[in-house]
Amino acid sequence: MTEQEALDWLDARGDVSRETLVALHTLRDLVATENENQNLIARSTLDQFFARHIVDSVQLLDHAGTPKNWIDLGSGPGFPGLVIAIMRPAIPVLLVESRRRRVDFLLHVAKRLNLANVSVAGARLETVPSEPFDAISARAFAPLDRLLPLAHRFSKPDTVWVLPKGRGAANELEAVQTSWQGKFRIVPSVTDPEAAIIVADHVQPKGRR
Ligand SMILES: C[S@@+](CC[C@H](N)C(=O)[O-])C[C@H]1O[C@@H](n2cnc3c(N)ncnc32)[C@H](O)[C@@H]1O
Binding of S-adenosyl-L-methionine: at which residues (predicted)? Predict the structure, then answer.
């Protein structure tokens, strides 16, 4: 997907207001500026920011149903969590990120964009108190066989998991077949024909009823 295609894709959705688009452009500027101080995104992706980071995040909404709250694991500079929060100001979004400087950046962006729906847990996920969420996202955080044991305590049966993956989605799913059950599916990413998103619900360790 080219940058122009990404902007057209957002425009065609019908749920990206002028104000939201301005906020997404401001996010781009803030990431670009802070990228001089800390390594938030690969420099090579700055020119394709909307395709590689914004649309890559926004598309998760199309698989997540109508969640009333959302947790994003290992948010880094805010993908996909901050983008979800910008797109859906009525949904409380908890961003979990362990690196201090990234946490500071997330808080700075939330303040700058007046995102009252954003909370940041500046800690390792392992230490965040358990609480069930309607939607769980994690991009480039951990493979499924590490992610599910770590994050399952933030789910309930109808929680939707939306997990952008590269080319390895099928292999990651295969690796959890013996230990986890649920309704898992692999959907194509709109940004990259080689990439996929693992979408799941009713995820639980095998052997539990
Ligand atoms: C590869 S980055 C991906 C960032 C972002 N999701 C993205 O796609 O651009 C992984 C992030 O997870 C954070 N992280 C790694 N292990 C973590 C843990 N146990 N708890 C919370 N954050 C963690 C790292 O600090 C890093 O910012």
Answer: 74, 79, 125-126, 139
